[in-house]
Every structure is written in structure tokens, then in C-alpha cells.
């Protein structure tokens, strides 16, 4: 979702030294069982164990797969270095750009009620924003074809973040870091992922409803889906218990990033906290059509931008729609979102009817833009996503 760790070092963080020799030997030697010998669920278990065991891998990982009413949980490693407990479905964590699916769900619910239109413009709804942005529509912000410059790529935002990690300005001011920049392209003519889009979406929600964004989010998404453990904090806090997030340093130790950066620095574009259980319920309801009617749902699921990717890129062939990405894999098509932020990487998807779902979380920030060992970890994470999706979409459900 946001610039990687290297952009913000050096930081004086708690460093945890871990021994990775045994893990290196495990990955190098493996065992005599190949993936061809395993059923789809066993491939998920193998992939998650290999991911956590590899050098530079995440201290912990957890995957939830649900097929109909049958939910399975696959966890490896630990929720906190130095502790024994594995990551749990009720552990909290930062969900990064998966927050964009929540702001999109909120906006589309309000569109369904008639308080917003997908064709409403910034000039009509948010006249205090730069006049050069005036023709941008809610639809274009939802599918990242707005051309709005990304505040998280701005040096002004990065400097402000470095100067005050734990205390952020009002999140509604995030757009001001790029207020003097022109649009990247005429609205609607190209695709470019931008965190500013979701700030604009949240501001439109506030203007249309007269509510703070967090209150509108709760009313239109969290409460209808019963997501009691999901929230949008402003500071560095994460409710207990939580999966601790880390980054590997140059010496092979781990620095903890769980409580380093105030959530308001990313707000509606990446500041939310949730649990694996809540994310599973969210993606099933969101994709399955529980939050708005068929007309809005058809708009969302029928108009995809080919090649549009989330960050990090998803598996298979990616395309983008309204706060939703389509991932066409060898095992079938799923819809959802990915995300990465300090200490965490997320992947949530569901089948078109919402009946088969996957959520996968690791306690490291990893993207396709990493190099060296970090890139190998991301590749292993994608293999885990693929195994989980294939298990979720397996044709023989055994009556499930």
C-alpha cells in the first residue's frame, strides 16, 4: 500500500535476533513428499510451512479457507517472536490496502441508497480540493483511473512521516501533500493505483452522509456484516491479542513494526485493523452481494480494467473494477484485494457468489518490487495464495 521499509530507515526500533540456520536447512533439504503426492488442503499446509521456514521468511503466517459452511484454518510460525502461540483467527493485525475494499464497500452502499452517484465529481462534492482535479468522478477513484497523484509517493509526505511517526495530521488533509501536483493523466484514460483515490472516496462519503468516515464505515459495512473486531484507529494502537509485524534487517534479525506508525498516516487507504476471521466474513459478504443491490453489484463486477493490479500484485491475470480486483488463476476466478504495509502483507478473495473464500496474512511486508531474498519470500507467499485458492475452488467438496 505504502512505500517499503527501506524508505524510512534508520528507525530506532526493537530488534529481535533469531536463528535461521535450522530453517535454512529445512528448506534446503525438504522431505521426500512432493506437491503432486498431496491433496489440495495438504498443499496449503506444505506451502505455509515452507514460507515460514525459509530464510528471511515471516515469523508467522495464517490462512483461512472457507467452502460453504466448512472453514479450515492453516497457521505456521508464531504470532510474536519469543512466544509459542501460532497466529490465531481472532488475533488482530494491520490490513493495509485491504482497507480500500472497505472504503469502496462503504461508498457503494451509499450509492445504492441514492446519497451518492458513481458519476459525482470532485468539483461537485469536494470544491475545496484543487480545481485541476474537479472532473474526477467517484467511479474513477474507485477503479484507479482518476489520475490523482499518490500522496504516499510524495517527498513532502515521506518527510512529514519521518518527522512524526506516531502522530499524524488530520487524515482528511492527506491530499494536501500533492495539492500542487497536476493529474497524472486525463481522468478515465489510464489505470494507475493511487492511495489518494481512497482519501477522495472517504471525503465524498463524509460530504454525502454528514458523518465522520469511521462512523459511516461502521454503519454501512462493519455492523451489517457483524465485524466486531474490525476498526479504523488513528494512532499506533492494535487491540490485544495481535499478530506482531516485522521486517528482516541486514544481519538476519527482525525489527518489530507493529506499533511504529500512526494509522492516520494512511487512513481510508490503508489504516484499518482487523482479524483473519473478520476478513473472511467481510470478503464473503462484500463479493457475495450482502452490502448493496444487484444494480450496483453488476456495475462493480462487469466493468474491469484489464491489467489493473492491486499492491502487491495478485495471482494469475489481474484486472481492476470498483474497489475490487479480479484474479483469473489456473484453478478458477476469484475477486478481492491485496495489501502491504509496515510489517504485514494481506490477500483476501472470494468466488463470485461469496461461497468460497481465502484470507492469507503474513507478518512481513513483501511485494513484487522487493529484491533478493525478500523477492523469494514474496514468490513463496504467492505459491501459498495459489494453493489456498485451488483448495477453496476444488470441485469435489465432499458434500460441503
Compile the SSE list and pairings:
Elements: E1 15-16, H1 21-29, H2 40-53, E2 60-67, E3 70-77, E4 93-94, H3 99-112, H4 122-125, H5 138-142, H6 155-163, H7 195-209, H8 213-222, E5 246-248, E6 254-256, E7 273-274, H9 276-288, H10 294-302, E8 305-306, E9 317-320, E10 325-329, E11 332-341, E12 344-350, E13 356-362, H11 372-392
Antiparallel strand pairs: 1-6, 2-3, 2-13, 4-7, 5-6, 8-9, 9-10, 10-11, 11-12, 12-13
Short description:
This protein has 11 helices and 13 strands. It is an alpha+beta fold and 400 residues long. The strands form 3 sheets. An 8-stranded antiparallel sheet has the order 3-2-13-12-11-10-9-8, sandwiched between helices. Strands 1-6-5 form a 3-stranded antiparallel sheet, with no helix packed on it.
Describe the structure.
The chain is an alpha+beta fold and 400 residues long. The protein has a single domain (5-392), classed as DD-peptidase/beta-lactamase superfamily (Beta-lactamase, 3-Layer(aba) Sandwich), CATH 3.40.710.10. The chain has helices at residues 21-29, 40-53, 99-112, 122-125, 138-142, 155-163, 195-209, 213-222, 276-288, 294-302, 372-392, and strands spanning 15-16, 60-67, 70-77, 93-94, 246-248, 254-256, 273-274, 305-306, 317-320, 325-329, 332-341, 344-350, 356-362. Strands 3-2-13-12-11-10-9-8 form an eight-stranded antiparallel beta sheet, sandwiched between helices. A three-stranded antiparallel beta sheet has the order 1-6-5, with no helix packed on it. Strands 4-7 form a two-stranded antiparallel ribbon. A hairpin with a 5-residue loop joins strand 5 (246-248) and strand 6. Helix 2 (40-53) runs antiparallel to helix 11 and helix 3 runs parallel beside helix 7. The protein is globular. The model is unreliable at 3-30 (pLDDT under 50).
Amino acid at each position: 500500500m505504502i512505500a517499503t521499509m527501506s524508505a524510512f530507515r534508520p528507525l530506532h526500533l526493537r530488534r529481535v535476533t533469531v536463528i535461521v540456520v535450522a530453517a535454512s536447512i529445512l528448506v534446503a533439504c525438504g522431505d521426500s513428499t512432493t506437491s503432486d503426492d498431496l491433496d489440495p488442503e495438504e498443499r496449503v499446509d506444505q506451502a505455509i510451512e515452507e514460507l515460514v521456514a525459509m530464510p528471511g521468511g515471516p515469523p508467522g503466517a495464517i490462512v483461512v479457507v472457507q467452502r460453504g459452511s466448512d472453514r479450515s484454518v492453516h497457521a505456521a510460525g508464531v504470532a510474536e517472536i519469543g512466544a509459542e502461540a501460532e497466529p490465531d483467527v481472532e488475533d488482530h493485525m494491520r490490513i493495509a490496502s485491504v482497507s480500500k475494499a472497505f472504503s469502496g464497500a462503504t461508498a457503494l452502499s451509499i450509492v445504492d441508497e441514492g446519497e451518492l452517484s458513481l458519476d459525482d465529481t470532485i468539483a461537485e462534492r469536494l470544491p475545496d480540493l484543487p480545481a485541476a482535479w474537479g472532473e474526477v468522478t467517484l467511479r474513477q477513484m474507485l477503479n484507479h483511473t482518476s489520475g490523482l497523484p499518490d500522496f504516499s509517493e510524495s517527498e513532502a509526505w515521506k518527510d512529514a512521516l519521518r518527522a512524526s511517526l506516531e502522530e499524524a495530521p488530520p487524515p482528511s488533509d492527506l491530499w494536501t501533500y500533492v495539492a500542487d501536483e497536476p493529474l497524472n493523466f486525463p481522468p478515465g484514460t489510464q489505470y494507475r493505483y493511487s492511495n489518494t483515490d481512497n482519501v477522495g472516496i472517504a471525503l465524498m462519503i463524509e460530504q454525502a452522509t454528514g458523518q465522520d468516515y469511521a462512523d459511516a464505515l461502521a454503519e454501512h459495512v462493519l455492523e451489517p456484516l457483524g465485524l466486531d473486531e474490525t476498526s479504523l484507529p488513528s494512532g499506533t494502537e492494535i487491540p490485544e491479542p495481535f499478530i506482531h509485524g516485522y521486517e528482516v534487517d541486514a544481519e538476519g534479525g527482525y525489527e518489530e513494526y507493529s506499533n511504529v506508525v500512526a494509522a492516520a498516516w494512511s487512513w481510508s487507504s490503508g489504516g484499518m485493523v482487523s482479524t483473519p476471521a473478520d476478513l473472511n466474513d467481510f470478503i464473503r459478504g462484500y463479493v457475495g452481494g450482502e452490502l448493496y443491490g444487484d444494480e450496483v453489484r453488476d456495475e462493480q463486477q462487469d466493468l474491469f480494467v484489464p491489467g489493473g493490479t492491486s499492491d502487491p500484485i495478485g495471482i494469475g491475470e489481474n484486472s481492476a473494477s470498483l474497489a475490487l480486483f479480479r484474479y483469473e488463476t489456473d484453478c478458477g476466478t476469484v475477486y478481492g484485494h491485496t495489501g502491504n504495509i509496515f510489517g504485514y502483507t494481506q490477500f483476501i478473495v472470494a468466488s463470485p457468489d461469496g461461497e468460497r473464500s481465502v484470507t492469507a496474512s503474513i507478518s512481513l511486508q513483501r511485494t513484487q518490487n522487493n529484491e533478493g531474498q525478500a523477492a523469494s519470500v514474496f514468490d513463496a507467499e504467492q505459491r501459498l495464495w495459489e494453493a489456498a485458492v485451488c483448495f477453496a475452488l476444488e470441485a469435489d467438496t465432499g458434500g460441503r
